[in-house]
Amino acid sequence: MKIARPIQALIESFQKLPGVGPKSAQRLTYYLLHVPQIQLDEFSDAVTRLKKDTVLCSVCKNISETEPCPICSDSLRNHSQILVVEQPLDILAFERTGKFKGVYHVLHGAINPLENIGPDEIYIDGLLGRAKDNDIEEIIIATNPTMEGEATAMYIRKQLKINNENLKVSRLGMGIPTGADLEYADETTLTQALEGRREL
């Protein structure tokens, strides 16, 4: 059976999204056929504005509507403590706990030689630049407990110690299972991991 071209085009677009296979893409597309046009226009507008109305914070590399982002510009946060995460979603996970009052740095990935992702492909240089500030007391590395996350943590620690031997560099404590992604961890697990961090 030949599928109408607009339907096929949308199915193919959905399939490009992570975690969406052919069947899911078809279900989503046919579902949208039954949605009122005004909702489709709103959905389309939201997708169009996704990149146009957001910026990358020049300080922490989080995604925001403002420059700098609300966390970096918040004078009530502890700017002497930086929590390093792989993705912006990880910030949302930590913010849900309400336990971390410092600021963040988003790498937008992890070192992964198999995928040709080296230190220059993620935002490590910006972190090293921030670490030179004398007001920084601690950098907490909260990369995922995977091979790539551990390799990234060790690389960052080494670079930070080259620049400043006295800087406190810690890693999240136990609580996050090996091989897991931070965005799926619950608030209690993240709180325990944060409180049980150790110096590298």
Write the layout of secondary structure elements.
Layout: H1 5-15, H2 22-32, H3 37-52, E1 55-56, E2 63-64, E3 78-85, H4 88-97, E4 102-106, H5 124-131, E5 138-141, H6 147-163, E6 168-171, H7 187-195, E7 198-199
Parallel strand pairs: 3-4, 3-5, 5-6
Antiparallel strand pairs: 1-2, 6-7
Helix pairs in contact: 1-2, 4-7
Determine the strand fraction and express it as a percent band.
Answer: 5-15%
- Specify the helix fraction band: 40-55%
- Total count of domains: 2
CATH class of the largest domain: Alpha Beta
The helix/strand order is HHHEEEHEHEHEHE
Task: Please tell me the overall pLDDT.
Answer: 91
Which spans have pLDDT < 50 for at least 5 consecutive residues? none
Shape: elongated
CATH architecture of the largest domain: 3-Layer(aba) Sandwich
Q: Going across the major beta sheet, what is the strand order?
A: 4-3-5-6-7
Secondary structural class: alpha/beta
According to DSSP, the number of beta strands is 7
Main beta sheet strand tally, sense and closure: 5 strands, mixed
CATH topology descriptor of the largest domain: Dna Topoisomerase Vi A Subunit, Chain: A, domain 2
> How far apart lie the N and C ends?
60 Å
Summarize the structure.
The protein has 200 residues and is of the alpha/beta class. It contains seven helices and seven strands. The protein has helices at 5-15, 22-32, 37-52, 88-97, 124-131, 147-163, 187-195, and strands at 55-56, 63-64, 78-85, 102-106, 138-141, 168-171, 198-199.
